[in-house]
C-alpha cells in the first residue's frame, strides 16, 4: 500500500467470504473490508470489494491456528483486474 489513510473503519463483509454481492455495502464507502479466506479466488473477493466502494481489502486466513504460513494471493487466470489494494493476514491476526 502506498497510501496513508486516516479516520478509516475496518468493516466485516456480509457474506463473510466476500464471494458474492456484499449486502452491507452501505457501510463501505471510503472504508477497508475484512474478508475471510475461502469460497472463491482472492481476485473475486477484491472485485466484490471494489464494486462496493471500498478503499482496500484485507483477507484473513480461515485457519485461526495459522500463525506463520502466509498464502500467495495468485492470479486466478481469468484476466480480470482489481485496482484497490489487497493484502493477506494470518488467521490469528484476523479472528474476531
Question: Topology of this protein?
Answer:
Elements (H helix, E strand, L loop, with lengths): L9 E3 L19 E5 L5 H10 L4 E5 L25 E4 L1 H4 L2
Parallel strand pairs: 1-2, 2-3, 3-4
What does this structure look like?
With about 100 residues, the chain is an alpha/beta fold. It is about 15% helix and about 20% strand. It is built from 2 helices and 4 strands. The chain has helices at about 40-50, 90-95, and strands at about 10, 30-35, 55-60, 85-90. A 4-stranded parallel sheet has the order 1-2-3-4. The chain is globular. It starts with 9 loop residues before the first strand and ends with a helix. The mean pLDDT is about 85. InterPro entries: PA_dom_sf, PA_domain. Keywords: Glycoprotein, Signal. Pfam families: PA. This is PA domain-containing protein. It comes from Caerostris darwini.
Task: Please state roughly what percent of the residues sit in beta strands, choosing from under 5%, 5-15%, 15-25%, 25-35%, 35-45% or over 45%.
Answer: 15-25%
Record the strand order, biggest sheet.
1-2-3-4
- Runs in which pLDDT lies below 50 for 5 or more consecutive residues are none
**Shape call:** globular
Average of per-residue pLDDT values: 84
N/C terminus separation: 24 Å
How many strand segments?
A: 4
Number of contiguous helices: 2
SSE series: EEHEEH
- Overall structural class, as computed from helix and strand content, comes to alpha/beta
Largest sheet: 4 strands, parallel
Measured as a percent range, the helix fraction is: 10-25%
Q: Supply Rg.
A: 13 Å
